[in-house]
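call fold(seq) -> tokens
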Amino acid sequence: MAWEECVTSIRANLDPNAKEVNQVIWTGPNAQVTEENLETDSFSASKPFALICPDRHCQDYGDFSPQAHALCNCKDVNGNPIPDCVPKNVLYPYPSGVCLNIDNPSDYSTKRGRACTKQGDSYYALTCFCCCSCYANGTKIAVPTGFKTIEYFQTGDEVLTASLATGSLKWNTGKVAYSMGTGPDGHQSAMVYMHYGDDDRQIIVTPDQLFLMSTGKLKRSDRLVPGVDELVNEWGDAVPIHEISIGEYIGGVHHISTAAAFDGVIDGHLLLSEGVVSGDFTLQANSGQLIDMGAMEDHKELPKIGSEEYEKKYSQLSKEYYGVMHITALSDGKREKVQRPQKFYLHGERSITVPNTAATYLDDAQAADVYNNAPRWSFEDIGMNSSLIKYVLRLFKGFFPEINFYYDQSNVTPNAYAFVLMDMQYVVLTGGLTRLKGMDQEGLSFVLAHMISTLQKSNPIGANGWTSVAMADYYSIGFLMDVYFGKNFGTMYNPGIKQLDTSLFKYISPENQAYTNDPYHPTVDTRFDALDAGKAMDFPPDGIGGPTAGGLKVVGVKAFPPMVGAFSFVNQDIDEAASEDAFHLLVQNKVVTVDGEVSPDFTVNTDLNFLFPHVSDENQRSMMIEQVRSSLIHAMGLIQLEFNDLVNPASASSYHDFTLDPDARIGSVVAKTNIPVVEIAAEIKRGVKYTLTASTNVRSYNGSTIDLQQRSISFEV
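ret:
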């Protein structure tokens, strides 16, 4: 791990303004820090910026501590695995502490508290950051008695080291002064696989691992060129490189340094790793000085494996999967391609299968725009934010344990997906999305909350049965508030919105602003409006299918005169047969029509003595006639109240939900589920002009409130 990679990782994961100790102006009129910053150690909260430890402090002090081993290796002081410890990536930043003399930043130590400050007024105990670390576990390193796998080296162990003082390799016995790595079950986002030599040797290393070339110079692994560069074996012979690939690695990584002092000479820091000469961690940490001395090729002037520049410069190489350049056979065609280790996967080789019906954060055209236009981290750099992504997924998993969150690093499409497979819910973040520069924890949290919202299948439904896109944005705020409680939500909201805007949506072309695979075709601006409305606890914006304030309106009315039916008169004195006979007699005498409409000529004094002629008891007959008369007097008319949208039946089911002026008794209220109509039975009279008003409780089927200016309508029968 070259120190510059650690610096880059800290700036990418913690604070883009992070400064190395020797870069800070500590005192004087142009000081970049205040006395309060120093007294309170505000650097622990990255204020005014995160502080990066001196490189030798990390190598000589911080990385040796039991705490650092527990964090990076997931092992206790006895080497036993720590249960439930999350394996760390190479370059995972962790906090350390340094006692710094601000008058002379090169004067630092590991003293703590008062032991530090009592040295003088210019000494402060401050929080600074180091990185976990660069070989894959299992790499064989030469020792005087044979070989030892790198993860088993301890401080003080013997190791073979080489010198070039005589112009050729001379091997001596050295001591290991430093041994550090990550846990054995980690996931490394970017590692380099090398296939070399006539005996088909293989090695997996970090991108910044140094190897001795046949030219006598050191070179980083991620700049090596198959068929051009040659490695060196223990006898100094050139070793051809057949394949260089960059990809994922499942497992731990480890690095060691020898006890030899480094004074600008590489002697004593060269190791024999899997049959070829490589540099120890000390050389990696001092790569800048080696370049200045001419002992190492300047990697900043060379293209990285997997980049377009690499492909263009070395067009003679064959290519497999995204961003991988390699030679699979010698020029004479006699060499067969070797099988790579099972724990190494080329980028693009191991991508999850996403169903075609999955919900997506961007539609295809939008994702293509972002892929083509947005700046992104290279494959080598993604290890710097991989730990952050895993943390965010682990965070959301704690709140939504029923959902399987998956980081599909190899998928280069900048998108996120949600789907259900075998009754299991999945949310997938792609490497193409997480590699976007500027996309941090807050922005990714917005994306995850959106995908969770789509899985709820809340109305209105969009493509393939998921919550529609902009409404998923709207509802996502609630899920974010679950994860980021209280003031934490307020702290993350604006940075998240900014990250979505400047790292993602900004790169969608004008012609693709609308999400086309959604019935409401929300634009980018509409989606931001939906997020803002959700945060304000307001109604969603118009046009996305969701409820709106005042979105439900009364648009029409039809009224029908009082009606009765053949069985309208059934009670304890009148059975069904008698009621049916009475209805037919009312029709014959033109009191009601065949359809049951009560005649406009009917009054309280209308003669009904033709009813029930077969009842001999006159008192009984008279009572039954008056019961029919009462039913005719109180016969209900039908009102069909028309709306611009379907009405939620639960909000319109009672006489309490509507009023008539002048007052008239309301009977039944039924909201139709297939048409935007509410049917109301009421004792309305002909020739009377009524005004019907819906209460403020009435809602549309999607939750829109009623328009206060358009909830009343007049009619006359």
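DSSP finds 17 helices and 33 strands in the chain.
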